[in-house]
Design a protein that fits this description.
mainly beta; 3 helices; disordered N terminus; Methylamine Dehydrogenase, Chain H; Papain-like_cys_pep_sf; RCC1/BLIP-II; four-stranded antiparallel β-sheet; seven-stranded mixed β-sheet; 454 residues
Length: 454
């Protein structure tokens, strides 16, 4: 029996179905003995789970066919095209191992501790663990090189088949570093600007109007993220509590949640969305502690709302959308390729895919996306007036107000770290940690808004 396989809460998400459920494995084959070097760089070094995901995805994208004799070569090296070769490639091992020679490189773990990039192993077969296909955590979703006639692919295993495998972890896998602190700039459809003064250890300041002066201290030094729209200000404190208000000033904050929240968003129509520490989304309108409606299962990693449209990005990289508060009514918008989402109050949706390409559309549904850029973008923002902002890999900001590949105007030199836009106002945080603002599309007209705040 597999090690530690009671149905228990897991660090891994429940992910979408991945085709027919697998109930039996491939026919037994001799272990390959040709353990060729992979010609990879910095092999056997510590590797993050996000790097494992990137490497593994490359074989799924290339549709690498199963073979115990052929080797697939790409930017990550040359590896044998079977189950253990695939895992060796994903883990950046110095050669294509077999299921037995992998054993000294792995440790046993409990099923409840499985995370993306761990493995399910038995003699003769191994697969990368992706997530769970059911709330009971009995049917794993895996990436694997399965058998002749198949390509590297994502599949769902039945509970009975999964129970014949042992949960394993590569000894050199490491957790991803936490993301950098939120830049702490936000602008609402009414022109309210919120900034987070990290040099003040987490104090929020607010104002209306462009210029260096006029900031009002809004909080004590307890804040880690800010959001504003439609006249509503939201703050997320360092302990995970959300507070809200609709006036500028130090007082009148209302507690909205217990200390369980990891992300916040607010739309021009006053819709508030929160993402809790399980990956579940809740939403409501109105300031106060009560009235939250559960919107999703525990599968979400990013949220956005504006103009009555709610967007979520799930743990597979798939975007879903709807235009009402409640658990049902989500429409799938994309394949599992997206890294970031934004939506304007005019309904313009922006997505940034895993290649760095931006696409846009203005309706809910799977189709209708228009490519907006080449694969060069790191951040996106959409405003209530239709303004789109992008930040490219050099730190340059570009903007436009129509959907399509052309029409971008360069807004800055290559000096910017973060962007925000709404209500006709554009905000940037430059690499000196200074905020600047303006109200029109073009290279000139930026006004210094703050001293260094981060």
């Amino acid at each position: 029996a597999a090690l530690g396989f009671p149905a228990a809460a897991s660090a891994a998400p429940v992910v979408s179905p991945a085709g027919p459920e697998v109930t039996a494995g491939p026919a037994a084959k001799p272990e390959p003995t040709d353990l060729k070097p992979a010609f990879t760089t910095m092999a056997n070094r510590p590797i993050s789970r996000s790097e494992v995901r990137e490497r593994g995805q490359s074989w799924l994208d290339d549709h690498v066919p199963y073979s115990q004799s052929a080797y697939h070569t790409n930017q990550y090296g040359s590896y044998r095209q079977d189950c253990s070769g695939f895992v060796s490639m994903a883990w950046n091992l110095e050669r294509s191992e077999n299921t037995q020679s992998l054993l000294p490189l792995m440790t046993d773990i409990d099923r409840s501790d499985l995370k993306f990039g761990d493995a399910l192993w038995r003699t003769g077969h191994i697969a990368l663990f992706v997530g769970w296909n059911d709330e009971a955590r009995t049917r794993p979703v895996v990436w694997e090189e399965y058998d002749y006639g198949h390509f590297a692919e994502q599949r769902v295993w039945s509970a009975s088949y999964a129970a014949t495998f042992t949960a394993k972890r590569y000894r050199n896998i490491v957790e991803d570093a936490p993301p950098p602190p939120d830049a702490g700039i936000s602008v609402g459809s009414d022109g309210t600007q919120l900034i987070l003064n990290r040099k003040g250890n987490g104090t929020a300041l607010a104002k209306k109007g462009i210029g260096l002066y006029g900031w009002t201290v809004e909080t004590d030094p307890v804040v880690k993220k800010v959001a504003t729209n439609g006249g509503v200000q939201l703050i997320l404190t360092k302990d995970g509590t959300v507070l809200a208000k609709d006036t500028i000033g130090l007082y009148e904050w209302t507690v909205e949640t217990d200390a369980v929240v990891t992300d916040i968003a607010v739309g021009s129509d006053g819709t508030q969305m929160i993402l809790d520490n399980t990956g579940t989304v809740l939403a409501k309108k109105g300031i106060g502690l009560y009235g939250w409606t559960v919107e999703t299962d525990a599968v979400v990693k990013q949220i956005a709302t504006n103009g009555g449209v709610q967007l979520i990005l799930d743990n597979t990289g798939t975007v879903l959308a709807k235009n009402s508060i409640g658990q049902y009514g989500w429409t799938r918008e994309t394949d599992a390729v997206v890294g970031k989402i934004a939506v304007g109050s005019d309904g313009t949706q922006l997505i940034l895919d895993n290649t760095g390409t931006v696409s846009a559309k203005d309706t809910i549904g799977l189709y209708g996306w228009t490519a907006e850029t080449d694969a060069v973008v790191t951040d996106i923002a959409a405003g209530s007036d239709g303004t789109q902002m992008i930040l490219d890999r050099t730190g340059t900001v570009l903007a436009k107000d129509t959907i399509g590949l052309y029409g971008w105007t360069v807004e800055t030199d290559a000096v910017v770290d973060r962007i925000a836009t709404n209500g006709g106002v554009q905000l940037i945080l430059d690499r000196n940690d200074t905020v600047l603002a303006k109200t029109g599309i073009g290279l000139y007209g930026w006004t210094l808004e703050s001293d260094s705040i981060v």
